[in-house]
TrEMBL record:
Protein name per the record: Ras GTPase-activating protein 3
Gene Ontology annotations of biological process type: intracellular signal transduction
GO MF, any single term: zinc ion binding
UniProt organism field: Sipha flava (yellow sugarcane aphid)
Gene from which this protein is expressed: Rasa3_1
Stretches assigned to the PH domain: 1-96
Amino acid sequence: MLTKRAQGRKKFGRKNFKQRYFKLTTRDLSYAKQKGKESLCTITLSDILAVERLQQESFNKNNMFQIIQPERILYIQANNCVEEKEWVDLLTKMCFSNSKRLTLYHPAAFINGTWLCCKSNNERTKGCQEVSTSVDHIQTSSVDVDRELSRIHALCVTNIDRFDNVLKACECKAVYPGDRLCLPILIEDPKTTFITLSTLREIIYTLEQEHRTVLRTIARETKYGS
């Protein structure tokens, strides 16, 4: 849950702050009143021009950041500074390749007909500060996909017992909520967590079987060829 400021779609609507459940996918960012409820607004990631922190003086609130869109700006308050940084960093990385990404932005809000940062009265004026990370400075590195997949596979196999423990905890909390006999693991949504981990565990077992088959084939071919 994050706190957002109304985007002002209605000319005379109140621009107050409300808590909303945010959901991020590879295509868009949306928010709803509660988890599982219909989305109130969906923002396509390709339409995001920049994601930057917002100066505290704008609304006298900490841990705020802004999602700049072509026609409006969405102001959001995170629950703490760590969460704020995570959202800003993640959204920035996901929107790096946007063709219309800004190079300048306003670090403060436009309130009562004035940008608090540069004191301009023109809401459409260009930003007064460079974005924190420019597209020209994206750090790229070559990734050995096979090696990374092998590393992830090894980590999953090594920690398969932890998967099983969490699955047992999910089952217990779903059937006996509040029971002290359940493992002391904090799980916000036992049902969804159980489904996700069960699917992941099946994939791990399948990969492990295929991995062993490949190793046996390599060993057999090596033996015959030696």
